[in-house]
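*** Query protein ***
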Amino acid sequence: MKVTKLVSTCDITDCPTIYATDRGTLLVQGETPTDHGLQIPSHETLVEIPMELIQKAIRDNLI
């Protein structure tokens, strides 16, 4: 899979980030919440990202 960084909230590697893949999908890097109370299948996960990241990606016409 080829991954391209689209947008991040900072310049270091441990920040919330959105990546595009060559599969036509997005990868999202963020915190893994544990206090959500949801039933998530074992093959899936949740990540929490700041709304600022989505707004920046839209503002920059990346998504």
Summary: The helical segments are 51-59. The beta strands are 3-8, 17-21, 26-29. The mean pLDDT is 91. The CA atoms of residues 5 and 19 lie 4 Å apart.
